[in-house]
Design goal:
The complex is a heterodimer of chains A (297) and B (275).
Chain A (H helix, E strand, L loop, with lengths): L1 H40 L2 E2 L7 E2 L3 H8 L1 H31 L8 H9 L6 H12 L5 H8 L11 H29 L3 H9 L4 H12 L1 H16 L3 H6 L11 H10 L4 H29 L4
Antiparallel strand pairs in A: 1-2
Helix pairs in contact in A: 2-13, 3-7, 3-10, 4-7, 7-10, 10-13, 12-13
Chain B lengths: L1 H32 L4 H4 L14 H8 L3 H32 L5 H10 L5 H14 L6 H5 L6 H11 L4 H9 L4 H12 L1 H17 L2 H6 L8 H10 L5 H21 L1 H13 L2
Classes of the chains: A mainly alpha (297), B mainly alpha (275).
């Protein structure tokens, strides 16, 4: 009797560690060790064919003088702000229209708006490049048949940036819509009933009840979409290749090219550290928010 | 008053309908164009439907180039990676939900904190790490590293916390081994969360581009998304073939979504609350 109990305890301590083992191994090998390797590389001159050399803060100091890095950082920030704001407005509007079981075919509408977020960003970029082509794209064809002049959707700098932002909204709005719908459905209906009795109109209802109670969902959507926008890479590679010129080149593309094409891995690691601090800050915000939102025990 | 309201609903429906058409059009246009003969693809006046539907683009996509190789690599990676992801994340979720042992909360916190370190910020050291381990240019290099996912562990743990302790305890008193309890009691009760993790994992693997880009340079080992990006990067784009390949990449995920719509909606909401 006594032995079985000890054996049971032994098993109960060992079992969870064994269950966790594959994850711990993978996390250690492919996230934690690389993280420290990346940190140390950012203080070195490091190429695949040259031996690493410690250079202190040189890489980070160079970043501030690197015109291309500054342009890509600026582009990423502009892209991020515009895409996040538009995504917020569009997905919230869709959710407001589709969260109350008030119209026929609500489920079908939700599914339709969600479909673009199922498609890989590579395929999204290809599809829109096909549609926005200068000469042969369907959009310019329609514009010209209506008597307009063709628009350089992807061949003019600011225009290309706007196209990339618009496509990001197209591809992401349905995903954030789903998050908003669940946020909206958590608002107690009685509040609206009380407001109606008090004679509030729809507009007042929205500003006084819906938005204040939706605040944490709004913040979650902002944080998630900001993180996603700083990670953007596939879409630009297939839609614009970062062009024309540098006008749609973002940080991740620059890191990739400096590391794997120019073979300056130490310097590219320093760029990654900057990107990591930005993404890390927003992820921490998300943890704080969801910690407040959900008590998950 | 009521008349006014019905007008409003009417207007709202129209706006939604237009927005839905605008949302779907790009997808529909790409898929239909993949069925147009090359001569019709850019012919003016353009028309939505081809005069003559053809499978020629799909056949030539599979025949020329290595598309059949890219396709089977993708299927292999998506299927094997999904199996691995489900197994190890469910195991980890169970350990974190149903056992008490020293360091448990710290391990969970560290795993969730890795969300702060996505591939985009460690792709250089990951590349070197894979090189040291001999996993470059191997499909296992794509499959193994991202199979431990904080989101998956989080979802699994949240779900399994709600499995009743008494069932597990009574099995233990009956002398069942820990692995058997996991296999015969916990797994059958966790089917919904297994399905959710499996579907999201499969979709993500099917669509992923960055991991294959870092791991694979050998043309014979590339995946579909890589091939698509390479094709669109060429100076002369063969749009007919490219659209056929794009269609092959798009259609399966939409079908999976339509079949499991409900799982998707709940999965997104649960995942978004914490990463």
């Amino acid at each position: 009797m006594k032995t079985t109990k000890t054996k049971g305890n032994f098993h109960q301590t060992l079992a969870p560690l064994l269950f966790l083992l594959p994850n711990i191994l993978i996390f250690t090998t492919f996230i934690i060790i690389p993280l420290f390797r990346g940190l140390s590389m950012s203080f070195m001159d490091w190429g695949v064919f040259t031996s690493p050399k410690f250079v202190g803060l040189k890489n980070f100091l160079l970043l501030f003088k690197d015109q291309v890095f500054i342009i890509t950082l600026k582009n990423t920030i502009v892209y991020s702000i515009c895409a996040v704001l538009l995504l917020l407005v569009v997905s919230l509007l869709l959710a407001l229209a589709l969260s109350k079981n008030s119209i026929k075919g609500e489920r079908m509408f939700r599914a339709v708006f969600y479909i673009p977020s199922l498609i890989s960003m590579v395929a999204v970029g290809i599809s829109w490049r096909f549609i926005l082509g200068d000469e042969m794209g369907i959009l310019n064809y329609v514009i010209r048949s209506l008597g307009g002049a063709r628009i350089p959707w992807l061949t003019n700098g600011p225009m290309a940036m706007m196209s990339v932002i618009a496509v990001t909204v197209w591809a992401g709005a349905g995903y954030y819509m789903v998050i908003f719908i669940s946020g909206l459905q958590a608002i107690p209906l009685e509040l609206y009933e009380a407001a109606t009795i008090d004679g509030a109109n729809r507009w007042q209802e929205f500003w006084r009840i819906t938005l204040p109670l939706l605040k944490s969902t709004v913040l979650v959507v902002i944080v998630l979409s900001t993180i996603a926008s700083f990670k953007a890479y596939e879409l630009i590679v297939t839609m614009t290749k970062g062009g024309p010129g540098y006008s749609t080149k973002f940080i991740v593309q620059q890191v990739y090219e400096v590391a794997f094409i120019e073979d300056r891995m130490g310097y590219a690691s320093a760029m990654s550290i900057v990107l990591m601090m930005i993404i890390g800050a927003f992820t921490l915000m998300q943890f704080k928010l969801s910690g407040k939102e959900a008590h998950y025990d | 008053m009521t008349e006014n309201k019905s007008y409003l609903t009417y207007a709202k429906n129209i706006v939604l309908l237009i927005a839905a058409l605008f949302t779907l059009f790009p997808v529909v246009w790409v898929i239909i164009s993949a069925f147009k003969p090359q001569s019709e693809l850019f012919r003016v006046p353009m028309s939505l439907f081809p005069k003559e539907w053809t499978f020629a683009n799909f056949i030539s996509a599979f025949r020329h180039g290595n598309f059949i190789v890219y396709f089977s690599n993708t299927v292999f990676v998506a299927v094997v990676a999904t199996l691995l992801t489900v197994v190890i994340n469910i195991m980890a979720g169970y350990a974190l939900a149903k056992y008490i042992f020293p360091g448990r909360d710290i391990i969970f916190a560290i795993m969730i904190a890795t969300l702060m370190v996505p591939l985009q910020v460690i792709m250089i050291p990951i590349f070197l790490q894979l090189k040291d381990l001999g996993l470059l240019n191997s499909l296992w290099g794509i499959i193994i590293p991202p199979s431990a996912t904080p989101t998956g562990i989080f979802l699994a743990r949240q779900y399994m916390v709600n499995i009743s302790n008494s069932m597990i305890e009574s099995a233990r008193i009956d002398g069942a081994k820990e692995l058997r309890i996991f296999w015969q009691i916990v797994l059958p009760l966790s089917k919904p969360i297994i399905a959710t993790i499996a579907i999201f994992s499969f979709m993500w693997r099917w669509n992923d581009y960055l991991w294959p880009l870092i791991v694979i340079t050998d043309n014979k080992k590339q995946t579909m998304q890589q091939a698509l990006a390479n094709f669109v990067g060429q100076l002369q784009i063969n749009w007919s073939n490219l659209l056929a390949m794009t269609t092959i990449s798009i259609v399966p995920v939409i079908l999976v979504f339509l079949a499991f719509q409900k799982l998707f909606m709940t999965g997104i909401t649960a995942g978004a609350v914490k990463g």
